[in-house]
User: Fold this.
Amino acid sequence: MNFLKMHGLGNNFVILNHINENKEYNYRDLSLLMTNPVYGVSADGLVIILKSDIADAKMRIFNTDGSEAQMCGNAIRCVAKYLYESNHIDKPTMQIETMSGIKNISLQIKEHVVQSISVDMGYASFSPEDIGLSISKDFIYQHISIDEGTIFNGTAVSMGNPHLVILTDNVEDYDFTNNGQKWEHHPLFKYKVNTEFVKLLSKTSIRMRVYERGVGETMACGTGACASVAALTKTGHLPIDTPITVKLNGGELTILCKQDYKIIMTGPATYICKGQFIM
Assistant:
């Protein structure tokens, strides 16, 4: 099975082009196998590109534990770059169908090489129903903790998938290894949660680490960066309609949160390798 491996700021994926594939696959089992660091290619997720009846292409993404994610900002940038540079889509704008809706994408191109990708990520939502909260009211800059330990201020937000954004100065030294899964399974969230620890650097920049639901700590998370900017805009820590630089372990993304909480994400995508997976 032919595959491509790409990354968005270190958040890396095995990508399968199944646009013209007629055979049916169990993508959950494939993700468990192909992303395995010993028996597979090793990756943060498995991305499938499929034909879409309502957009230019369709993207599905599976985590390393086999669960399917609604959306991934870093993965969709990789897919957009691949589709353009492989001549599957010959235009600087495209629409990609995801589990969280159709995403509109604009490419910044130089000599047929995609330099960066801007994605209309849709609207950030603070609705308990959209996030999947176990309470009936929103959760904005409220106290939250695990194991009755340190109390943090957190905001729950959905970018098509659930996020808990914690504003703290303790970003670099926080122990995600021992605590990440406790946040992921916090009882406030019915369907588990992606957790972002964020430090405010200035009015136009933040530092962020992320523990992704079903994966663990990753080098970057596009939806997490969007959720973090939306949350800090909501709480008044960041200005509205202003490009914000999000500094992640793997590099930087630029996030724009508009007045209506529509989010635009801009960042790069990079090839790693291609090959054939023998099953």
Summary: The chain has a mean pLDDT of 97. The chain has two domains: 2-121+267-276, 128-260. The first strand starts at residue 2 and ends at 8. The radius of gyration is 18 Å.
